């Protein structure tokens, strides 16, 4: 059936048929002001005429309305959307098959919203619920639940219709923005489609080039395999020929083994000769070092003999200026082994007991603490001891208030000068004690 043609006889008896083909409207017989009905909800045909248009337009999508009316009429509704909308409004103005069918459809579609709205027992509570619900996603359910509620008075009904009216304007503006955005997306889609086609073309070209390169590589691989097989075949033939030649010459393998053994022996001889030359050079260096040490030792012995002779010739003159140590223990830290006996002789001549520690060269540094504890006077050879021994001596003498004489050069004359200064300091202390007032 085309638009404007007559309705079939099967649906000619329904008042909706004329509205679906002509788009006419009839005046509503319902009252505009809702009448209190206890707790019963209003039906679709009980709503005012100005509420039917937003209810049908917002709560029922056009495909659903067309399907329901077509099923009720026993055929397919061929009117346009506007005529279909106007016809449904005319039929819902009174109770009938169409209004009852749409009432049932709306109750089923918005059952959750109906249960939510039924929890509000006053017009004020229903108004607050409507204000919150219209901001959500189910505006159709909120509209149906609020308009059909038993506590929907004239003021709330007017507010709901005004809100729905403005909402429809907003939806229209949003649809226009969406259409504009759709046009932009279509243009962008066209650009992306062209770019995709270009990318696919490049990809196809690259795949073709890669396929050609792969074919060339496979061909090169086949060629190299052929060359390898030919070389392996030639090597196998040469090995067979070599084996035949070895079999034809008896003792050839043994000769080869002897030649290899001889070569290894020659390499070993060369290695030993180089090691022997290195050892001889090292021995010569050690011999020269030993000769130098012997000469230095001879010089030191001659110097020691001279010092001993000079000491033996004038022992009284050497020791007359030295103070008496009065059996005090004197620890000498460091010093060369050649001058240690001279130190011992000088200390013992002045009445002291001689103790010695080499400062960490051979004796353990840990033994130095015990020697320091047993000493009354410490002589430190700063140039002949380790840093650890030096700091141990200095720290011990400072903590225990022990006198310590520091000698830079290890010599008997240096020790005599140090002991002489010790005697002058003792005389100064004695004079200070005698001049002190008696208590």
Automatic annotation (TrEMBL):
Compositionally biased residues, Polar residues: 312-322
Comp. bias intervals (Basic and acidic residues): 302-311
Coiled-coil region(s): 175-202
Positions of the UniProt region annotated as Disordered: 302-322, 418-439
Family affiliation: Belongs to the UPF0751 family.
InterPro entries the UniProt entry points to: UCP020408
Source organism of the structure: Roseateles chitinivorans
Keywords: Coiled coil
Protein's name in the database: DUF2325 domain-containing protein
